[in-house]
Amino acid sequence: MFEWLIPLLLVVLLLIWLLDLPEILGEALGGLVLAAIVGTVKLTAFLIRKLVTAGKPQP
Length: 59
Prior knowledge:
The protein has helices spanning 5-19, 21-25, 27-53. The chain has 59 residues and is mainly α. The longest helix is centred in the C-terminal third of the chain and has 27 residues, at 27-53.
């Protein structure tokens, strides 16, 4: 279902590694990048939980 997510995350990690964003642009941007990655992972987990529990009846 989310097969496109793994290559996308790999590309983002490769870009971070190649550009070395935290060192070039400072710790603040590195923190923002990490926050964006964590937010994306949390949103993805939330959406997957919603999809998994969508078929289950609510009490």
